[in-house]
């Protein structure tokens, strides 16, 4: 009994775990005989104190802030870079392009690694490498070294962008996670909005290298906090727990395993799926159109870092620091968009508590409103910025609502992807990440020529016209999305029989006192998904009939359930 007490009392010393566990309890095993989280398990990240979970959330999102801040920071000092190395301003823009290309490659490798080794160690390794190679950027002896440093730092900086949503899935339930993801999305847009102004003033008063010194200071401070957060990946936590039990040789539990260990998956198998499935899912109708829409919005985001200097520096004669200040309006807009997401989450929570089933298409009204606002604000910005006689505050306000619209589109569609693809959501999000990053990487290479040739009004009208065409996408999905999902190879949709069974289960629950059915395992919760647990189980069960012999469901690097070893050629 002494050994049993030791294994169960050990977590009490952890500051993020409760000391209320009873010592006479035995290690909890699921129906398959594997170590799992029991109800109110003190080792389950979702059961940690609220303050502790928010602390981990903020630290994780601060890593994202470092990445997004660094992505656009050089746009405020491109003139200094071009002067020192004797290259054109367009060529200097490659420091942004190559950083964003690093975004394309990083998630495909770091997400599977975090699934295998846990999130914490991937955060440690990638962020330390990000800081190290920022030294190369800060003291680059030539332009080639600067470009190499930017590509490598972009690759390592992409790890928080792919793994931070997984941390949020580890820590929060469906409704609360939506609020955390709103903060994540706001930072995704706030970082690029703030950094060009800081870089512009540093170039005026010091030189362009100070931009990278600031990145090093930010990274160093963040690294100190990073070392304080624990592992949150449920699969890794359960594996560590199973190893602890085996070491103690508790009678009857000498060979116990976690679900991840029992799956027998190797790193090679995980990489095989991670490097092939996203490209297959990318061309699924829903995934493709969402990737196309978000790629356009992401391209515009990085076009703004060239458009604003044209409008406020070249046309109005402001200096390199002041001309970047209107970009702060996009930060305000991102915060406003996040607030709208938060208010919408409250409505969704009320509907879920009332027993209403939330369908993936219920995520789309935010994108519908954001899509309309996107093209309206683009025309508003372009034709007010086109004339110096119009006060500068008018296009700046347009930029505020433009950023809000982009956040609504971004969050709404990422939630829609997650709710649509469930077990395959990680692959859908990975494909989306690569597509939008590649599109954003191209923005600095053509924006200046495009707006010089067409003018600010003409260039904005071209972007606004494309946005107007794409604005119909969420409306189409809202009306026909369920039918499209039923015909998809990767979007599990409950059949009518399953839905009728679900309704009958709810009626029985009401008759028996209104107790809810047990929730699904925390280790199989999708990122940003507010789908009810019953619907999730029904959808998963329906899909399991099709892939029963090959399935091995477990939580992937993005925090969503994922089915491995599916033979895509035999659907």
TrEMBL record:
Please provide, in alphabetical order, the Gene Ontology terms of the cellular component aspect for this entry. plasma membrane
Q: Where is the composition biased (Low complexity)?
A: 514-533
- Domain Major facilitator superfamily (MFS) profile, first and last residues per copy: 55-482
Q: In which compartments does the protein localize?
A: Cell membrane
The protein's matches in Gene3D superfamilies, at most eight in alphabetical order, are given as:
MFS general substrate transporter like domains
Entry GO MF terms: transmembrane transporter activity
Query: Where along the chain is composition biased (Basic and acidic residues)?
Result: 503-513, 534-554
Q: Where is this region: Disordered?
A: 489-571
**Homology family:** Belongs to the major facilitator superfamily. DHA1 family. Polyamines/proton antiporter (TC 2.A.1.2.16) subfamily.
Name listed for the protein in its UniProt record:
Major facilitator superfamily (MFS) profile domain-containing protein
Protein's organism: Knufia fluminis
Q: What is the lineage of its organism?
A: Eukaryota, Fungi, Dikarya, Ascomycota, Pezizomycotina
